[in-house]
Amino acid sequence: MKKNITTKNYRIPADQIQNLEIDRNGRVAPRLHDLEPLKNTLLSVVYPGIKVASVNVPTEILDDYEESQVENRLAKLVWNGIHYKLVGASGSAKKGKFYFVDQEHSRAIAERFQHWPQAAIVYFGILVSSCKVMVEEPDARVLVVPDGKLGTNDCRGWIRRSFFLKLQLAHEQQLVMEEIDGLLRDRYDKPPDQELLGEQERQELAQIAKQEVRRKVLPDGRFYQFRMSFSNTQAKGSFKIMEDDVADALEADFILPESAVKPGLKVPAVMYSIFGPGRRFRGNVVTGIREFSRQLEFESSYTLLEHAPKDSIQLEILPQAMEQVRKLSGAVSEGRYEELLKILGRHPDSLPDLDQDTGEEFRIVEGLLLADASGEIVRHPYVNNQLNKLLARWAYKVTTGGGFRLPAFALMDDGYLFLKDGKVLSGSDWIPEHSAIVPLASKLGLCVRYPIRMVDDLLPFRNLHDSLIVKHLSEHLAAQGCVGRRSARSGSAAVATSGHVCSALRNGKEKRRRL
After folding, report:
1. Has this prediction a pTM greater than 0.90?
2. SS3 266
3. 339 by DSSP, 3-state: which?
4. Could you give phi then psi for residue 166, rounded to 5 degrees?
5. Residue 349 in 3-state DSSP?
6. Which residues make beta-bridge pairs with 136?
7. Which of 100, 142, 470, 472 fits as disulfide partner to 84, beta carbons 3.0 to 4.6 Å?
8. 107 and 254 together in one domain
9. Nearest-5° angle of CA 9, CA 13, CA 16?
């Protein structure tokens, strides 16, 4: 039975967050849109009493007087009697969004970014990025190594399995509590607090909620985007899971490459081993999972098709486009609106197109079409008008982009790390150049990096089958003293130093199916 974990509400209280905007004349006013709750952020955990102001500034061109007015207001921002100091920005700085904190916390933030203004502007977003789940560990061990050591890669590290299970359980409990709140709102006009419910009703709601959130819980065997705070610094990147035995051997709960720590560490390396220099930290660590890899689809685009050969257009793309037209015509005439939305690329399981409109009016239309089984709602002028817009956009994309879909994967590196007979084995970059491991039947493929600006963004690759995977990995392991042999039954190359390595290969196949 799983041990219960106290689920904390990592959220800065509403009265400690100000969403403001400055106009071209330097006037400050509350912002009524684009509000930020700052839920499950590193900032809310590390500085629980902090007061934050998210400020939007004009992005259009200003004259000299207007520019000076805005600059003066940014230098002396006072709201509700609180003096705020500019501490950083995020990826939205190009959209004119900056972050301020109260003077009491401004010095701590400055020290966190080594009193380096450029670093604060670039990396402050790490502290305010919302995560799906967040866990604080008061006594955790972090090992920072050069990129490529211990199977790491550019901004990609390792998290021990037992700690990942804590994140998984915390995420489940968080989702269950949110689901129970929703069920209570459906049952009662004035929902009671969960702690005031009777034992029978609480268990009933918990059982229903667990069934509903089962598919939403942080899954195993994926690629995880993380945010982390430790030792008065922060890190961002992605994780793979390492088993507890190798984590114990390395005396580390997390292994990070130097590139994941933002800004770079000034602490000198104090540990030297066969893996090279490293830095160890022990203490309070806050870890959040922001996103994880999923199997999705991209829609094609004209920027891709303009590089396609003529025979592909005639034999593959045009027949696929005509088939999509037939499917859409049938879905419209028969009122199969869920299928229609899937064809249009508006279905929840589809990856949104880069230029797709996600406005509120389109989401309303989607909800109405899915909720109305009779199909009568489509006769409503507003719904009909919005649906026509969706159809017009789809028609344009089909005629210019072909209307076919491409599998979308998270591009994960090939690093590995495990323990065998008391020896740590690790490595990376063992897959040959212009090769990849993809769960597709085709032997050759094209890795497309969006947005496509030139033909160089289309990277041809060879899809490695199992025998080649075993061959290349066996050679890489043999270089570390891990002996390989051939299987007498199948004649194919196999790693036979221990069942652990074969298990790692099987887990790798499972990951390839899921990613």
Report:
1. no
2. coil
3. helix
4. -65, -45
5. coil
6. 286
7. 100
8. no
9. 150
